[in-house]
Structures
1.
Amino acid sequence: MEGVAPPPSNDDSTLARTTKPSWSRRLAWIGLAWAAAMIVLIVLNQPGETPVPGNRPIEALAADYVSSDTCRSCHPGNYASWHASFHRTMTQPATPQTVAVELDGVSLSYDGLDYRIDRRDDAYFVRSKPVGAAESAFGKPLQIVQLTGSHNLQIFWLETGDRREGRTLGQFPFGYILAEKKWAPMVQTFLVPPGPKAVYSKGDWNNGCINCHVTHGRSTFVEGSTFDSKASEFGISCEACHSGGREHIERNRNPIRRYALHLFGGKDPTIANPERMDGPAASLACGQCHSIWAFHNAAASVTWNKENGTYRPGQKELDLRWVVQPQGTDHPEARAELKETDPHFFGDRFWGDGMVRVTGRELNGVLASPCYKGGHFSCLNCHEMHPDKTDPVTLDTWRRNDQMKPKMESDQACLQCHQDMKARLTQHTHHASSSEGSRCYNCHMPHTTYGLLRSIRSHQISSPTVKETTEHGRPNACNLCHLDQTLAWTAEKLESWYGQKSPGLSKEDQALSLAAQIILKGDAGQRMLIAWSMGWAPAQKASGYEWLYPFLIFELNDPYAAVRFGAWKSLQTLPGFSGYEYDYTQEDAQQKEAVARAYQKWWTEVRKPSPTFRTQTLLESTGMFRQDLLDRFLDQRNDRKIYLAE
Ligand code: HEC
Ligand code: HEC
Ligand code: HEC
Ligand code: HEC
Ligand code: HEC
Ligand code: HEC
Ligand code: HEC
Ligand code: HEC
C-alpha cells in the first residue's frame, strides 16, 4: 500500500519540504516531466544522502496521498491560507524554525529533577539530574524530536534513547504556554486533580495523539513499547479535508480538462470539497478529528493502527470508528464494552445530560443540536478554511479568530437560517437590541466547554434552563453573565418570558448568587467556568466587577492548577490588577503568600465602596467575605476528582 514514489523509508519530511515545491510548479506546465522528476526524487532520496531519522515518526505518503506541496502550483491561494493556519503546524519536527521559544540553555526543575536543554547545530537535547546533584550527575542527552501545537500550547516529545524502540516518543514533562511565554509542568496544563506528576507515558503520542494530529497517520505498533509510526503528512493538510489527491492531479494535468471543468461550473468529482457536501457529510469531514469517537471493536483498532482506514471526506460514516454520543443507543456492543473498559469515559468528557464539555470535540455538540436535523447545519455555516478574496480579513486575524467566516461571530450565524428572529429580536431576548444579552451565542452557545486552560463556547445549540443547573451542575447562560444573580431570579424570568415552569429551589438558590456559590462549593470543572466568566467583559457589565476581587484572589489558591490559572487571568482583567504577576505553578505555601499579597493590594489600593458588596454576593458591605457563608460553602465543596479529557 505504502510507498508510491518516493519510497516510504526515504520520504523524510525535511527533504520532501525542500525539494517538492519547485517540482510541482514545473508539473503544471510540463506533464511529461512528472516521470523524470520522480526518478530524480528517488535518486536524491537514496539512502546515505539524507539519513531518515529512526528515533521519531516520519512522513511517508501512502495510498492515494500526494502531499500539500503538490497542490500548491494549481491552487496558490488555498495553499497560502492553509499555510497560515494552525492546522498546518499541529505536528512538526523540532527545529530552530519550528519551536515557539529558543530552547538552548533552558533550565527547569520539577518533581525532584533538574532539566537542561542544549542546542547542537539545529537539534535540541535534554539532560536531567536529581535536584541539587552536581553538574556531573547529568544523564544521557535525549533529543527533542517532535512538537505538538503552535497556537496556545506547545508540547515537546523526546526520543526514548533506546534504539530498539524505534519511532516511539517519550514526553518532555513541560509544556510552553505561548500567550504567557511560560513553561508549565504538563500536568498543570490540564484540568486534573493535584497529585499525579506525569500525564503521558511512553508511546502515548504514537498510540493516541497521532489519531487526530496528522494527516493519514499510521501508528504501527510493532511489539513491546515499539512503534514505527508514519503519517502521509504532519499537520492537518489539504488531503485531510479533501481526500487523497492522486487521481485529481493526474487528471488535471490535462489543460483541456481544466477548461472543460470551468464550462461545467468547476465541479470536480476527483476531489472532495466540503462546501459541496450536505451538512452531515461536511461536519463529519471535520468531525473525523473534532469528535469523541471509539473503534467498533478490537479488530478495527488493529487495522487502523496498521494502515489507517478507508474513510475519506464526503462519506457518511467513519469506517472503523463511530462517534460516541452518551444519549445514543447505536453500536450497543461497542458501547457496552466502552463502559466496561473505561467506566470514566463519559464522565470525563460530557455533562450529565450528554452535552460535550471538552474542547476540540465540536461534532458531538453539532450532532446534538436541534438545527442539525434540517440537514444543512455544519461547521461551514460559521467557519471557513480559506478566506476568499471578498473577505477583507488578514490571514493572521482569521487564524487567530477561530477561522470564522465573515460576520459569523455575530447573530448572523443564526439569522442565516432563523431569519424570522431578526424582526422579533427584542421580543424574544427581552434585552435591548444592542445589549450583550441579545446576542444569540450568549444564550444558545454559552461558555460551558473547557479546554486549553479556558472556557470555550459550547457547540451544542441549546436554550438556557434552570434544570441544566439543578440536575447536571452546568451553569446556565443567564447566570454565567448575571453572575451576581440568584438561580431563583433566573427561574422567575425564564417562566415569565418563555413560559418555562420553575422547579422548586433551595433556600440558598433563592437568596444567594449562583456563581458565587459555585466558585466556592462547586467541583473543579464548575469552579473553572465561573472563574473564567468573572473575567468576561459582558458578565462584568451585567453584574458589576467590584465584588469579584475577593473571589478571584481566593481562587489563586485553588487545589487545581487549571482553576488557579483561570482565576489569575480573570483577576488581570480587573482595574488595578492588569499585568498582575503570579506564578500558578508554585507550591501551596507560595500560593498562599500570593493570595495575602493580592488581598493587601486590593484592600489598600483598589477597593472602593460598592453596592455590589451585599449578602447576595456573599460579602459584607465592606467587601469582606461573610465568614459564615464562606465557611459553609467551603465545607460543602464538592471534592469529586475531575479529569477533563480534552
Ligand atoms: C480526538 C482527536 C484528538 C486526539 C486523540 C488528540 N487531540 Fe489534541 N487536539 C484536537 C483538536 C481538535 C484540537 C483543537 C482544539 C481547540 O482549538 O480548541 C487539539 C488541540 C491540542 C493542543 C493545542 C494546540 C495548540 O496549538 O495550542 C494540544 C497541545 C493537544 N491537542 C495535545 C494533544 C495530545 C498530547 C494528544 C495525545 C495524548 C492529543 N492532543 C490527542 C484533537 C485531538
Ligand atoms: C481543515 C480542512 C481543510 C484543509 C486542511 C484544506 N482545505 Fe481546502 N477547503 C476546505 C473547505 C471547508 C473548503 C470550502 C470553502 C471554505 O471553507 O473556505 C475548501 C475549499 C477548497 C477549494 C475550492 C475553492 C475554494 O476556495 O472554495 C480548493 C481548491 C481547496 N480547498 C484547496 C485546498 C488546498 C490546496 C489545501 C492545502 C494546501 C487545502 N485546501 C487545505 C477545507 C480544507
Ligand atoms: C495540475 C493542477 C492541479 C493540481 C496539482 C491540483 N488541482 Fe485541484 N483543481 C484543479 C482544477 C483544474 C480544478 C477545477 C476547478 C478550478 O479551476 O478550481 C480543481 C479543483 C479543486 C477543488 C474543487 C473541487 C470542486 O468540485 O469543488 C478542490 C477542493 C481541489 N482542487 C483540491 C486540490 C488538492 C487538495 C490538491 C492537491 C492534492 C489539488 N487540488 C491539486 C487543478 C489542480
Ligand atoms: C485530521 C484532523 C483534523 C481535521 C480533518 C480537521 N481538523 Fe481542525 N483541528 C485539528 C487539530 C489537531 C487542531 C489543533 C490545531 C492547533 O490549534 O494547533 C485543529 C484546530 C482547529 C481550529 C482552531 C484553530 C486554533 O488554534 O484556534 C478550528 C476552528 C478548526 N480546527 C476547524 C476545523 C474545521 C471546520 C474542519 C473541517 C473543515 C477541520 N477543523 C478539520 C484537527 C483536524
Ligand atoms: C443551517 C441552518 C441553521 C443555522 C445556521 C442555525 N439553525 Fe437553529 N435550527 C435550524 C433548523 C432546521 C432547526 C429545526 C427546526 C425544527 O425542528 O422545526 C433549528 C432549531 C433551532 C432551535 C430549536 C427550536 C425549537 O423549536 O426547539 C433553536 C433554539 C435554534 N435552532 C437556535 C439557533 C441558534 C441560536 C443558532 C446560531 C447559533 C442557530 N440555530 C443556527 C437551522 C439552523
Ligand atoms: C453556529 C456557528 C458555529 C458552528 C456551526 C460551528 N462553530 Fe466552531 N466556533 C464558533 C464560534 C462562535 C467559536 C468561538 C468560540 C469561543 O470564542 O469560545 C468557535 C470556535 C471553534 C473552535 C476553537 C475553539 C477554541 O479553542 O477556542 C474550534 C476548534 C471549532 N469551533 C470547530 C468547529 C467544528 C469542527 C465545527 C463543526 C463540527 C464547528 N466548529 C461548528 C461557531 C460555530
Ligand atoms: C452575555 C450577557 C447576558 C446574558 C447571557 C443575559 N443577560 Fe440579561 N442583561 C445583560 C446586561 C449587560 C444587562 C444590562 C442592561 C443591558 O445592557 O441590556 C442585562 C439586563 C437584564 C435584565 C434587566 C436588568 C436587571 O438586572 O434586572 C434582566 C431581568 C435580565 N438581563 C435577565 C436575563 C435572563 C433571564 C437571561 C437568560 C435568559 C439573561 N438576562 C441573559 C447581559 C446578559
Ligand atoms: C436572553 C437569552 C436569549 C437570547 C439572547 C436569544 N435567545 Fe433564543 N431562546 C432563549 C430561550 C430561553 C429559549 C427557549 C424557550 C423555550 O423554553 O422554549 C429560546 C428559544 C429559541 C428558539 C426556539 C423557539 C422560538 O422562539 O422560535 C429559537 C429558534 C431561538 N431561540 C433562536 C434565537 C436566535 C436566532 C437568537 C439571536 C438572534 C436568540 N435566540 C437569542 C433565549 C435567548
Note: The two ends are 33 Å apart (CA to CA).
2.
Amino acid sequence: MLELGLKEFIPAATLAGKAPRFDHNSDFNFGVFSEKFDYVIARSIWSHAAPVQIKQMLDQFVKWSTPEAVFLTSILKADYGQDQYRGDTWVGRSHESDSGGVVRYRLEWIKDECRRRSLAVDELKRNILDQVWLRISRAK
Ligand SMILES: C[S@@+](CC[C@H](N)C(=O)[O-])C[C@H]1O[C@@H](n2cnc3c(N)ncnc32)[C@H](O)[C@@H]1O
C-alpha cells in the first residue's frame, strides 16, 4: 500500500524535497524516530485493532507528540446494544493475515481511555464510508 501510494499519488519532487522517513514496526512504537509529532493519522486502523493496540497507540501519542498535537483516527461505531471488540489481536488483512474483517468500538469506551490520559475526543462530521473520524488532542 505504501509503495503504491508513493508511486501513484506523491510527486517525485515532493518526495525529494520533504524526504519522508517510514517505519513498519508492528507494535505501534511511535518513538522510532526520536521525534515528537504534531499530527498522527490512523485511517482504517482502529477498525481492525484490538483494545490493547488502541491503548498502546494512545500511550505512544501522549509520549511522542507536541503539546498542541492532533491525532485523527477513524472507527466503526458499535451500534446501540451491540458489544464492542474484546479480543487481543488485530482483525483483518495485515502482514500476518490474508483474511478480511473489521471490529467496532463504543465511543464511550474510547472517551474513557482518552480521559485516563488527559486527552479529549471530538467526533467529526466528515466520515469515510461507514467509519467516523475522531479528533483526539490534549484536554484543555
Ligand atoms: C485497512 S488498512 C488501512 C491502510 C491505510 N491507513 C488506508 O487508509 O488506506 C490497515 C493497515 O494496517 C496494517 N497493519 C496491520 N497490523 C498492523 C500492526 N500491528 N502494526 C502496523 N500496521 C499494521 C495492515 O497491514 C494494513 O496495511
Note: The mean pLDDT is 96.
3.
Amino acid sequence: MQRYMPDWWALPAINDKNREFFTSGNIVLQSCESCKTVQHPPEDICHACQGTTFDWHTCTGEGVIYSHTVVEHPIPNTLKDRVPYAVILVSLDDHPQIRILGNPVNIDPEKVAVGQRVRAVFETIEGEKAGVTLKIPQWEVV
Ligand SMILES: [Zn+2]
C-alpha cells in the first residue's frame, strides 16, 4: 500500500511501548494486566489503577469517524503538492472510548464525514532502524 503522506514524512520512533502498535499489522491496544483497562496511546502507567504491567489486546480494526479535518494549507511548505488531505479521529467499535488518529485512504478529503464506517489498513514501510518493518495504520472507508 502506498504511503498517504510523502516518503520524507517522519516515521514513528519505535520504542518498547509502541512497537506492537506500529509493527503488528493489527490495531492493538495496551491492556493493563491488573485491571484489564484498555488504553491508547500506550503509557507507562494504567489510567485506571496505576498498574505498570501490560499486555496487548487485538481489536477488530473497525470503527466510525468521530471527527475529521481537511488540511488545505501546506505547513511545512514542502507539502504544497500534497494538500488537501484529510485527518480523521476514529472511534473503535470494540472500544468506543478510544480514538485513533489517521488518514482515510480511499476517499476524496472533501467527502469525509462524521459517522462513516472505516476499517484499518496498513502501510508497510521499512523503518529507520535496520530490520524494523513498520505497519502504519490508516483507514479505509467501507
Ligand atoms: Zn489498571
Note: The pocket of zinc ion is lined by residues 32, 34-35, 37, 46, 48-49, 51 (CB under 6 Å).
4.
Amino acid sequence: MANYMDIIAGCKDKPGGIIEAYHAIQKEYNYIPEEALKEAAKAFKLSEAQAFGVATFYSYLSVKKRGKYIIRMCESAPCHVAGADEVLKAMEAYLGIKVGETTPDNKFTLELSECVGQCQATPVVTINSEPVFNVKPEMVPGILAGYK
Ligand code: FES
C-alpha cells in the first residue's frame, strides 16, 4: 500500500499535482484521510481550508472515512421497481449500518448510486465498482461473505 506522504511527494512539483495526489490517495485508502489533507496543504502551499476545499469540490473524492469495500445500491427507477429498497434494508440489517455509514471494522461502506447501465439485470449492486446482478434480499449474506 502506497503511503500518502510518498504519493504527495511524488506529485508535489507537477501541474495539477494536488488533484493527482488526491486521486492516488483515494485509490489506496478509498477516501482522503485528514492527515493527508494537512500534508497536501503543506506540500502544495495552501491553507488547510483550501486543501480541504479542493477535495470536497470534486464529487468523486471523499473526505469521509470509507471502508475497504464500497457497496452501492442502485436506486434509479428500474432497480427501484425491481426491489432495491428491500435489498438495501437487507444490507443495512446484515451490516448493522445505515446508508452513508461504514462498519466499525472499516470493511464496508454502504452508499446509493444512480443507474449503472445494467438495467437488464435489476436490482444491481456494485461492490468496488464490480456489478452484482439480480440481487434478492436473501442473497445479501452470501454475497457479502465473499468479501474478506
Ligand atoms: S436502474 Fe439500476 S442499473 Fe439501471
Note: The longest helix spans residues 17-29.
